[in-house]
Fold:
Amino acid sequence: MKTYFSKLLLLLAFSVILTACKKDDDASENDDRSENLLGLGQSAEDLLSDDIYKTLVVEIVYSNGFRPEQETIDNLRTFLNQRVNKPGGVQIVETVISPPEGAPYTTQEIRDIESTHRTRYTNGDEIAVYVFFANGNASGDTASSVTLGTAYRNTSVVIYQETLQSLQVDRFLVEATTLRHEFGHLFGLINILDDDIHPTNHEDPDSNKHCVVEDCLMYFASTIPSTLPNPTAADIPTLDPLCIADLQAKGGK
Ligand SMILES: [Zn+2]
Ligand SMILES: [Zn+2]
Structure:
């Protein structure tokens, strides 16, 4: 059983890489949402700096039974306050929806759910991020390989919460790590738009858009529970100095 389970988690890594880092250039819906229909990484500077947007609003959307733990929400707020430069602050708002149908979800279905249920868009001096905690799994999942989360647009993330809840792991640790990791991709890590200005190239040659530093949050395996040091006492992986330098180069802290 134990062997089986660690094999499952190992395969998870590859799935997270392939899906979390896919660029998406679907920008054809209606106008006042246009700021939120850009490709992954394209709002990194707007999210991190205070040049244009003074406040960051994170809308967490879920149906009953799929809310992340309160500790996870509080932890995300702490992480964002550490990294983004927003004098107006970081607000996390929650939207409870009736359970969408159609799981397992394709990326198109995830986009359709966003289009129906997202209520907060970038507006004035507020930039908005949408995070859907899905009541189902990803369509590409197999018996041995599942996806935990994907950042699929400039301000859009899906966390496959049903999948996450089915794993026999520390819920808070995996929720918080997966969320922080996907925000790292929204912030442009690693080199998502080939504009990484840090002189040391720290993109992992073996894992596209992930960090070469093994204990970094953006290392490809950082969202794999079995690779965390000690599940009962482990901390969430932090960003290494190279990743932090990239965020600072784009106006972050
Ligand atoms: Zn990733
Ligand atoms: Zn790193």
